Amino acid sequence: MRLGVAVSGRGSNLRNLVDRGFEVVAVATNRPSCGGAEFARERGIPLGELAQKAFASAEDRDTAMRDFFKVHGVELVVDAGYDRIHTRPFLEAFSGRIVNVHPSLLPDFGGGMDAVEQALKAAAPVSGATVHVVTGELDAGPILVQEAVPVLAGDTLETLRARIHEAEYRILPEAIRLMEARLAKSPAVG
Ligand code: GRF
Fold this sequence. Notes:
- This protein is an alpha/beta fold.
- It is built from six helices and seven strands.
- The model has no long low-confidence stretch (mean pLDDT 95).
- It binds 5-O-phosphono-beta-D-ribofuranosylamine.
- 5-O-phosphono-beta-D-ribofuranosylamine binds at residues 9-13, 36, 80-81, 101-103, 165, 168.
């Protein structure tokens, strides 16, 4: 299945997908200097550089991202550390075909960028990682796969984040395979 991956950060989930042989046909970013964008350049994967400042509105930027992914025949969008909320033009074009990886056991610690910090602050004994289908609502949408990750005594943001990332590298590929199976039964994307 042809994947379009949206990134804003380090891009380690993107790298993991490519290393595991997933067909990443396009990468889009709102932060052209991020690690994920750099990785796409290194590997020669078509890169859509869509910094918000180049567009009048979030909808305009998302229209450009939609067109970029469509031109490359993307069938499933993977938000892998993408820090923007998709707006209507994008959500409508890829309805039911966008997944997101989030560093907590949703619905715990949803709704933002600091899920790992929140888990530490709450002294939660367990956190984890979730892959869910993206709907218009932040960190909601049907859950595809989750993995619990223990929070250990003495954990810092870095150590806990690293342990959660390891879980993400397992569950994101699994979730994509589930979506592939599910989408194989539905009509091709228009
Ligand atoms: C991951 O922890 C993911 O859950 C969150 O952003 C982080 C991205 O990491 N949405 P990377 O850029 O893939 O290394």
